[in-house]
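Quick one:
INPUT:
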């Protein structure tokens, strides 16, 4: 665990929430029934308003138009209630011991996946959300005297029940400590394991909050015949040093018009901060 004293991060010595310890150790944690039925109903109504009022963003041109409709990005900019939720102390109290008291939201996307057999986008293969932040060879074990550092945490606040039939997100506990990405030849393998541990489904009920470390291997599980879709608010929190991804860099950057125009070649663009959308922002 960490804390910021003056301008530097230091090891946090003191009690922390059990969910913080589980995130650090296992790579995930679930806070059941964190939000009441009334809170969920109010939030769901406002998120549905954004879907009705705001057209789908064109961030991934390879995504079929009907699949783009599943997402609404930068929700804290579009909903005052979403902005309130992301700063809820019940969430920050768990996150700050891992990310620091000045951690911030780097992405905030609503997901509304209707029932469908094909999921062109929706996390339906094993992946990590960027990273691994400390890559290392698989035969080099992590020194357990050093708590594994966490740089970003994703959060799903369920706006409706998500049982097994709806294809909940699953994680492989402990895989965030591997220093590896999921093996490319097993991205669709629901039987994938890490150190003998397999997929753990983060199914739940409306009002539950599931958190997972960005480096943990995770995916959406296949749906069943009783799939009714998924609906949740996703929030990614990162350390202060991680850039926000609420909008693609083509739309939000710190460059002058002249500097952006001079960046013609692909590496010229990335070196000044103009990146193609990927995790978090696309």
């Amino acid at each position: 665990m960490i804390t910021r004293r003056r301008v530097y991060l230091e090891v946090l010595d003191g009690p922390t929430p059990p969910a913080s310890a589980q995130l650090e150790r296992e790579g995930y944690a679930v806070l059941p029934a964190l939000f009441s039925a009334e809170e969920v109903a109010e939030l769901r109504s406002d998120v549905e308003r954004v879907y009705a009022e705001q057209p789908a963003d064109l961030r991934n041109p390879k995504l079929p138009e009907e699949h783009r409709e599943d997402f609404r990005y930068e929700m804290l900019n579009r909903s005052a209630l979403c902005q309130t939720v992301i700063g809820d102390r019940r969430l920050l109290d768990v996150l700050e011991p891992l990310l620091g008291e000045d951690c911030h939201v780097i992405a905030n996307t609503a997901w509304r996946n209707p029932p469908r057999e094909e999921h062109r986008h929706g996390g339906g293969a094993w992946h990590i959300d960027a990273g691994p932040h400390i890559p290392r060879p698989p035969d080099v074990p992590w020194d357990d005297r050093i708590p594994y550092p966490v740089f970003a945490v994703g959060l799903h606040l369920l706006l409706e029940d998500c049982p097994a039939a709806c294809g909940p997100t699953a994680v492989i506990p402990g895989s965030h400590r591997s220093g590896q990405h999921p093996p490319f030849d097993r991205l669709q393998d629901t039987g994938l394991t890490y150190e003998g541990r397999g997929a753990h489904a983060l199914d739940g009920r409306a009002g539950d909050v599931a958190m997972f470390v960005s480096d943990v291997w995770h995916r959406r599980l296949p749906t069943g015949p009783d799939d009714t879709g998924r609906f949740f608010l996703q929030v990614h929190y990162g350390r202060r040093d991680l850039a926000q991804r609420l909008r693609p860099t083509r739309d939000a950057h710190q460059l002058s018009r002249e500097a952006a125009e001079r960046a013609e070649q692909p590496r010229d663009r990335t070196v000044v901060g103009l990146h193609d959308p990927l995790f978090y922002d696309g």
